[in-house]
Design goal:
With 404 residues, this protein is α/β, with parallel strands linked by helices. It folds into two domains: 7-47 and 303-403, Aspartate Aminotransferase, domain 1 (Alpha-Beta Complex); 49-299, Aspartate Aminotransferase, domain 2, CATH 3.40.640. It contains 14 helices and twelve strands. Strand 3 (123-127), helix 6 (133-140) and strand 4 (144-148) form a beta-alpha-beta unit. Bound molecules: pyridoxal-5'-phosphate. Pyridoxal-5'-phosphate is lined by residues 41, 105-107, 131, 176, 180, 214, 216, 242, 244, 250, 255.
Length: 404
């Protein structure tokens, strides 16, 4: 009954399901407070108060037939205008209504742009480690995902291998910064080099290569780190943004695409993307949430970054003290930790015996590492540290005092 195309997805789903079941099993035995689930990228910080306030204001003040009605498939014009204006103010860009297309989160934005530009057999490149759904999204449109192997020194993209793997069939490249799962922010230098390679390859092959910048974590950057705005580096860029993490609204499904004028055939791409939104079945992004976003931008709403920052510092320091090795993340809410053994799935099983639920790096095409999502309560981090310490000792890691 299940289609050929769906079958592998159903089989792969088991990894996530197993982890979910494992969490439930452990919670039933030890109590939920003694299970340290670091597996999900679901924000634990509440949406800012402006969200609730805006919802109530809209329901009281705005015409319900307008608030709950259909609008242009690209979204409400005043909402798109507000977003464009806010981007221009913050990043010195020059966007208008005709560059912003409201989407059902980043997942929908990625599907819309891939459906818009991809012909069967064309290649989309991604840098490992990458968000595992990219492969599924590309296959939705019969494209082929080409993976560039990880640069495990600093987890900036491996640009040498990238340059070698671009072919005349390359249609797009997906980048994600701040990155899930590493927390790394791609530097100004990285983006300059990436743009230069892309421009050269476009010229060499006489093709257009679209750089898709997947940015649900743009606002989650720490220590004053600047997340470069990608359209400034490369003309053929499409930005895929989401409020799932920046306003802690993952279930509300709201985001947008930026299709800049500088992109090749920008107007036609925008029209096609609007149609893609419709025929993929979303039709338009949720109307109430669009209106909420407008008010939240006007009110300057943002999520409590300090809570994530506190978690990041405590967990990073705690893991280092245990003897684990990982780079200090500058953004998002993930730590990417090197497994003490090559088979990180075995390490995850050992961790789960200490009630620690971690995601194997092979789920992000980067075996030998594990992802720890620290969008959890500070108390969970504090309580989990003895378990991490015990796990580290099993592998002969530990602090100087421990080893003595
Ligand atoms: N891209 C990346 C890198 C993500 O981590 C996620 C969600 O975790 C998404 C896209 C999907 O985000 P959304 O909830 O906006 O669809």
């Amino acid at each position: 009954m299940i289609s050929e195309k769906m079958r592998p997805l159903v089989e792969n789903n088991s990894v996530i399901r197993v982890m979910f079941e494992e969490g439930k099993r452990l919670a039933a035995i030890y109590g939920a407070e003694n299970v340290y689930d670091f597996s999900l990228g679901n924000p634990n910080v509440a949406a800012p108060p402006e969200v609730e306030e805006s919802i109530l204001e809209i329901l009281r003040e705005e015409d319900p037939t307008f608030v709950h009605g259909y609008m242009s498939n690209a979204g409400y014009e005043d909402v798109r205008e507000t977003i464009a204006h806010s981007l221009n103010e913050r990043f010195g860009t020059n966007f208008g209504v005709s560059n912003i297309l409201m989407t059902v989160g980043a997942a929908s934005g990625l599907n819309i742009i891939l459906k818009t530009i991809l012909d069967p057999g064309q290649e989309v490149m991604a840098f490992a480690p990458y968000f595992v759904e990219y492969g599924n999204y590309v296959r939705n449109y019969d494209g082929k995902l080409v993976v560039v192997s990880p640069n495990t020194v600093d987890f900036q993209p491996n640009l040498e291998e990238f340059a070698q793997k671009v072919t005349p069939r390359t249609k797009a490249v997906i980048i994600n910064t701040p990155n899930n799962p590493t927390g790394v922010v791609y530097s100004d230098e990285t983006l300059k080099k990436l743009a230069e390679i892309l421009r050269k390859k476009e010229e060499e092959f006489g093709i257009t290569i679209v750089l898709i910048s997947d940015e649900p974590y743009r606002e989650l950057a720490y220590d004053g780190v600047v997340v470069p705005y990608v359209t400034k580096y490369y003309a053929d860029t499409v930005i895929c943004y989401s409020y799932s993490k920046s306003l802690s609204l993952p279930g509300e499904r709201i985001g947008y695409l930026v299709i800049p004028d500088e992109l090749q055939d920008s107007g036609a791409v925008f029209t096609a993307a609007t149609i893609a939104n419709r025929v993929l079945g979303s039709v338009n992004a949720p109307s109430l949430m669009q209106r909420v976003i407008k008010r939240c931008i006007e009110k300057g709403a943002s999520v409590n970054l300090e809570a994530y920052d506190r978690n990041r510092n405590r967990l990073y320091e705690g893991l280092k003290e245990c003897g684990f090795s990982c780079i200090r993340p500058e953004g998002a809410f993930y730590l990417f930790v090197q497994s003490p053994v090559a088979d990180e799935k075995e390490f995850c099983s050992k961790a789960s015996a200490h009630n620690l639920l971690l995601v194997p790096g092979s789920s992000f095409a980067c075996p030998g590492y594990v992802r720890i999502a620290y969008c959890v309560s500070y108390e969970q981090i504090e309580r989990s540290l003895p378990a991490f310490r015990a796990l580290a000792r099993e592998y002969g890691l530990g602090t100087v005092e421990d080893k003595a």
